[in-house]
Amino acid sequence: MAENIIELRGVNKVYDDNVVLDNFNLDIKKNEFLTLLGPSGCGKTTLLKIIAGFEYADDGKVIFEGKEINDMPPNERHVNTVFQKYSLFPHMNVYENVAFGLKIKKTPKDIIDQKVKEVLKLVALEGFEKRDIDSLSGGQQQRIAIARAVVNEPKVLLLDEPLGALDLKLRQEMQVELKRIQKKLGITFVFVTHDQEEALSMSDTIVVLNKGKIQQMGTPQDIYNEPKNAFVADFIGESNIIPGTMLEDFKVVFADREFECVDKGFDKNEEIEVVIRPEDIKMVSPEEGMLKGIVKSTIFRGVHYEIELEANGITWLLHNTQNAEVGTELGMDIYPEDIHIMKKAGECHEN
């Protein structure tokens, strides 16, 4: 098992009676790409600043490689940060921006030249040394910000929504690029975002936050396929969240009928919530369906149609490559492995 590089123990942070982090505990492994995901105000950026040393915890411990660093200033921590606003120096060219931290450390010039050349190759910007910062595209500026951070060879790189200012196509390209750079360097990345697609596409581990607490932590596949509560299910992708009753192991009732499922370990007749992803509902004829209902709306989303259907008093969301006319009757099939059972809202926190 990978060794922890950062450990947070009982961390609290309050601003003007607003609890931003509430008895927060987290282990971050060496060499992993960990993403802090959640809505604005959930505490993810504050957490990043506490790790970096730009903010201090009111209570609790920040531990780096087994040593408490609560009172250690930012410049003495083996971490570097890349912000959404890249904070590049406009009066310096690319070489000078990347070399800045090394010059502050009084690194010999030949070593600076070597390191700057290596890191510009890493971010695919060889030959850009003399370019002005203002002449670069947004994606190129972001790469320079990363190069400036990693040239100092930090053990952890903190990234605070660094892709937020880029357009969609460039953002998707940079997601691939960031993951490549992280694997090449073999250092720990802690990435902050509110964009679930970014989190799912890049991360080894996702930590879903809300109101200063961890709602769920796991691999992208675990977070998407097995959400622990309604907040996670609703925040990560789109979901149908339906109240139900767990009759016994592998048997659940919702939408006025009984279904087989693959979940167990709940109390008999326990009130639960069911999560079904829109893409997991099979669209069939009304005669063949486990459920049937009337199409209320349909929207073309490029790779699929988004269909709203009213059945058994519930508005269902379906994703399908085939369209359906508004007002027509459709059947729906739901397989046991696509039915995910959760505790009722408010009953599951990992923190």
From TrEMBL:
PROSITE patterns: ABC_TRANSPORTER_1, ABC_TRANSPORTER_2
Example of a GO cellular component annotation carried by this entry: ATP-binding cassette (ABC) transporter complex
Reactions this protein catalyses: ATP + H2O + polyamine-[polyamine-binding protein]Side 1 = ADP + phosphate + polyamineSide 2 + [polyamine-binding protein]Side 1
EC number: 7.6.2.11
Ranges for domain ABC transporter: 6-236
Broad enzyme group: translocase
GO MF terms held by the record: ABC-type putrescine transporter activity; ATP binding; ATP hydrolysis activity
SUPFAM superfamilies, A to Z: MOP-like (SSF50331), P-loop containing nucleoside triphosphate hydrolases (SSF52540)
UniProt family annotation: Belongs to the ABC transporter superfamily. Spermidine/putrescine importer (TC 3.A.1.11.1) family.
Assembly notes: The complex is composed of two ATP-binding proteins (PotA), two transmembrane proteins (PotB and PotC) and a solute-binding protein (PotD).
Designated name of the protein: Spermidine/putrescine import ATP-binding protein PotA
